[in-house]
Design brief:
The complex is a heterodimer of chains A (403) and B (336).
Chain A lengths: L7 H28 L8 H9 L3 H5 L17 H21 L8 H7 L2 H9 L11 E4 L15 E5 L2 E12 L6 E7 L9 E7 L5 E6 L10 E12 L16 H38 L6 H32 L5 H26 L10 H8 L9 H13 L5
Parallel strand pairs in A: 1-4
Antiparallel strand pairs in A: 2-3, 3-7, 4-5, 6-7
Helix pairs in contact in A: 1-4, 4-7, 4-8, 5-7, 7-8, 7-9, 7-10, 8-9, 9-10, 9-11
Chain B lengths: L7 H18 L3 H7 L4 H9 L18 H14 L3 H5 L4 H4 L3 H9 L3 E5 L8 E6 L6 E6 L2 E5 L2 E5 L13 E5 L4 E6 H36 L1 E2 L2 E2 L4 H27 L2 H25 L11 H11 L5 H12 L12
Parallel strand pairs in B: 1-3
Antiparallel strand pairs in B: 2-6, 3-4, 4-7, 5-6, 8-9
The chains are: A alpha+beta (403), B alpha+beta (336).
Chain lengths: 403, 336
């Protein structure tokens, strides 16, 4: 039987995040809406966040710790905690949440593949000073290779004990401010996916620089950058997983494995944004037409609200299931893709219905719901579009051929 | 703590329902539909397996299983033949058995049917269709209580009702005599919960079966040089069906654990909308073949349509959800 209850531990985490979101994330998000720019690196949100001492794993859905060998068996719960955190923080402001200091999406491949030395340097030391916000980033997408990750054109050529990297990336969250970025490149274009490797490139490395900060429809508070590498030299030790990383381990496979962890979280974030819009509209409806008798139009709007709520609640269950399977060590690719297909659309519909409920006021920024509507659209696109998720499922369920 | 495991008890019951469905119901499904009923041997086996009394208290010969577990068995039985459970048990039997008069009916397994009505019907009235042959009683669930009518006249429906034909099909006249209240408003809400879960579980099973059949067919049927499942338009439709079904299934499963009437109403709506859509798409996937009696998908589509009309249908559930939408608690409410 399904258990959809939260125990005391999860309940406490949720309360803590709720307080943080209400006090800090939402106001920061609205700051960005006013300026039309990503939050600056010295925004007070970041130092507050550093002082709170949140674990980074919590934000990415990691954080599960296996028991030491021989010790008592500890139930892994990091993914479930992560999915709750993802939804809750997105409820308050996903753009600001994505701009929070930490390894960001780069944390996934780091956790999966980095050597102990790399983990020490790039996951621990880089973020040890709570008063000095720092970011990591994940650079996979290129101008000519989005969904078709296998087509990346960034190259890495060996030169003694170094690699020379050339290429361009786009849609990189926190890319311009990141201390380091996990950069996917091919060491041999003739090998296709098997030739992919990931490198850690540090900020300030000659030849490596941001090209632009994108202007976007939503998630205004989050920085989305273009990056370029022009004859960037990195040492062997900066190949993710170390120089002996074998074919198939260091690139495409890592990129794909990361998705099984992040897609449920991204779907959960969409649910959070949908929930925010839904509650805002419900509160207005309660005040405006909560008393009977209601007009036919009001009844229709309430019916749409009920429709939105049931789809959001159902979407959440699939996100939770995908996270639960991570915690119990079962494959979750199907659930992750299903959640990623369903949740963003359910959330988008909820946001749109919320605007309808609020009437013309729903179009104004202060009403918040229009911001939710703009913010949530990207969730059907990034981390693999809805169409890519369907291809993932078709391969698993229908033996759909690889293209 | 959030968990999605399946207990051994659930697995065993599901497996025995699946096996009974595949071994005894699926093959002769068309014969039972044509005959408008099931042979006594199958009825006896069904009863012997305990499928008719899974949620009844042990004192009444049941297994006292929770609705969340029973629903999974209904789903498996309906996957093989959507009429079977409705024909060989009394949907709502647990609620029925909680009243004195209803308990006698439940104990004797007298044939009858439960309908849901918004307003009390004075005098004699007619019910155009119930999926039951020769009903001896009708229970009417109103918002403020349940009434049991035992002075009923049934006539078999001539022609072919849309679906659930193997359960029988009657037009019923309910006389204004021998009608007694057997449950109050609070109890009526529990009747609705059990009936909606039953209908939703059956629709889910039937829709899953249709989708599974369509998937296999599309992987074998070749058009334009490759299996039709490998044409993206159809591939996406098939995986969307699987996604929608899995999500509706989670909604129903979570609601049957909590047994909150509004959550159940919402799950009933979601499952109904999903099952109707998936059934239609499954017939579509087979093209002209899907329209023929040669394949089960057309029957699943008809049966789901009939199931979707029972107990007030999704419209009544949606109305209940809409009526409550301003007062239900927020999702992710934290306890302080």
């Amino acid at each position: 039987m399904i258990d959809a209850t939260l125990d005391a531990g999860l309940n406490n985490v949720l309360q803590m995040l709720r307080a943080f979101g209400q006090r800090h994330l939402r106001p920061a998000g609205m700051d960005a809406e006013r300026t039309g720019e990503p939050l600056p690196v010295d925004h007070p949100l970041f130092s507050v966040f550093g002082r709170l001492g949140f674990r980074f794993g919590m934000m990415e859905g990691g954080g599960s710790k296996s028991a030491d060998k021989g010790g008592p068996k500890v139930e892994k719960r990091g993914a479930r905690m992560g999915i709750l955190a993802a939804e809750e923080l997105a409820y308050w402001d996903q753009g600001s949440c994505m701009s929070l200091p930490g390894p960001g999406l780069g944390g996934g491949p780091m956790a999966l593949l980095a050597t102990p030395d790399q983990k020490k340097k790039y996951l621990k030391e880089a973020f040890k000073d709570p008063d000095k916000p720092a970011w990591g980033a994940y650079a996979l997408t290129e101008p000519a290779a989005g969904s078709d990750v296998a087509r990346i054109r960034s190259t890495a050529k060996q030169d003694g004990d170094h690699w020379i990297i050339n290429g361009e990336k786009m849609f990189i969250t926190n890319g311009a401010r990141a201390e380091w970025v996990v950069w996917f490149a091919t060491i041999d274009p003739s090998k296709g996916r098997a030739g992919h490797r990931a490198f850690i490139i540090e900020k300030g490395t000659p030849g490596y620089r941001p090209t632009r900060i994108e202007k976007k429809m939503g998630l205004t508070s989050s920085e989305t950058a273009g990056l370029v590498c022009e004859d960037v030299r990195v040492h062997n030790s900066q190949m993710l997983g170390g120089h002996d990383t074998k074919e198939g381990e260091g690139g495409f496979k890592v990129a794909m494995a990361t998705f099984d962890l992040t897609r449920p979280m991204v779907a959960g974030m969409a649910v959070g944004i949908g929930r925010c819009a839904w509650e805002r509209a419900r509160d207005l409806a309660k005040d405006a037409f909560g008393k009977k008798p209601r007009s036919t139009k009001e009844i229709i709007l309430l019916d749409r609200l009920a429709h939105a709520r049931r789809k959001l609640d159902a979407a959440r269950l699939m996100c939770w299931k995908a996270a639960y399977k991570i915690d119990v060590g079962e494959p979750n690719t199907i659930e992750a893709s299903m959640a990623k297909i369903y949740a963003p659309r359910a959330a988008m519909e909820a946001c749109s219905i919320a605007i309808d409920v609020m009437g013309l006021a729903g179009i104004t920024t202060d009403a918040l719901v229009e911001k939710c509507y703009r913010d949530v659209k990207i969730f059907d696109i990034f981390e693999g579009t809805g169409e890519v998720q369907r291809i993932v499922l078709a391969r698993r369920m229908l033996d759909f051929p690889s293209i | 703590m959030i968990a999605f495991g399946v207990t051994e008890e659930e697995q065993l019951l599901e497996e025995s329902a699946r096996r009974f469905g595949d071994d005894r119901l699926r093959g002769p499904e068309r014969d039972h539909e044509h005959d408008r009923g099931y042979p006594s041997a199958i009825r006896a086996e069904f009863a012997e397996m305990g499928f008719g009394a899974m949620s009844l208290p042990e004192a009444m010969g049941g297994a006292d299983l929770p609705l969340a577990v029973v629903a999974r068995a209904w789903e498996k039985l309906a996957a093989a033949d959507p009429s079977a459970a409705i024909a060989m048990t009394i949907p709502g039997i647990t609620a029925l058995s909680r009243s004195r008069a209803g308990a006698e009916i439940a104990k004797a397994r007298k044939p009858g049917a439960i309908i849901v009505a918004d307003e009390r019907k004075p005098g004699t009235f007619e019910i155009p269709w119930v999926p039951c042959a020769n009903p001896e009683w009708i229970a009417i669930v109103y918002p403020d209580g349940v009434e049991l009518a035992t002075d009923v006249t049934a006539t078999a429906i001539v022609g072919s009702p849309c679906g659930l034909r193997a359960a029988g099909a009657s037009k019923v006249t309910v006389k204004d005599t021998k009608r007694e209240p057997i449950a109050d408003a609070a109890e009526a809400a529990k009747w609705l919960v059990e009936l909606r879960v039953f209908a939703a579980a059956c629709m889910l099973g039937a829709a899953r079966d249709a989708a599974s059949y369509a998937r296999k067919y599309c992987m074998e049927r070749i058009a334009f040089g490759k299996p039709i499942a490998h044409h993206q338009g159809l591939a996406f439709a098939l995986v969307d069906a699987a996604t929608d079904l899995d999500i509706a299934s989670l909604a129903l499963a979570a609601a049957t654990v909590n047994l909150d009437p509004i959550e159940i109403a919402n799950a009933h709506v979601l499952v109904t909308e999903t099952a109707l859509q998936v059934a239609d798409r499954s017939v579509q996937a087979l093209g002209g073949h899907g329209y023929l009696f040669d394949h089960p998908v057309e029957k699943r589509m008809r049966d789901i349509r009939a199931l979707a009309s029972l107990y007030g249908g999704a419209a009544a559930s949606a109305r209940d959800a809409t009526d409550a939408v301003l007062t239900i608690p927020n999702a992710m409410e934290v306890s302080k």
